[in-house]
């Protein structure tokens, strides 16, 4: 994995999944969609779930049921071309 942490990979996955769906730029992304985007093997799922929990507790991710998104201020820093 070329990222420094799973949380960085999750953030990148959420941004890219939402970028491809421009009509819903701030939408939540499901855990299954993140797993599919990162293409992880099943033995790495526990690390992904731990990183998701850590991101929600620290405030780096917002959770709504089983879906996640980044805070609004991060989206404002990203310019859509």
List the helices and strands and how they pair.
Layout: H1 6-20, E1 29-30, H2 31-38, H3 45-58, E2 62-64, E3 67-69, H4 72-77
Antiparallel strand pairs: 1-3, 2-3
Helix pairs in contact: 1-2
Are there runs of 5+ residues with pLDDT below 50, and where?
Answer: none
How much of the polypeptide forms β-strand, as a percent range?
A: 5-15%
Structural class estimated from helices and strands = mainly alpha
N-to-C CA distance: 27 Å
Main sheet record: 3 strands, antiparallel
Subunit organisation of the chains: single chain
Strand order of the largest sheet: 1-3-2
| Contiguous helical run count | 4
Alpha carbon gyration radius: 12 Å
Average pLDDT = 83
Order of helices and strands: HEHHEEH
Helix content: 40-55%
Strand elements, count: 3
What would you call the shape?
globular
List keywords for this structure.
mainly alpha, 3-stranded antiparallel beta sheet, 10% strand
Q: What can you tell me about this protein's structure?
A:
The chain has 81 residues and is mainly α. The chain has helices at residues 6-20, 31-38, 45-58, 72-77, and strands at 29-30, 62-64, 67-69. Helix 1 crosses helix 2. The mean pLDDT is 83.
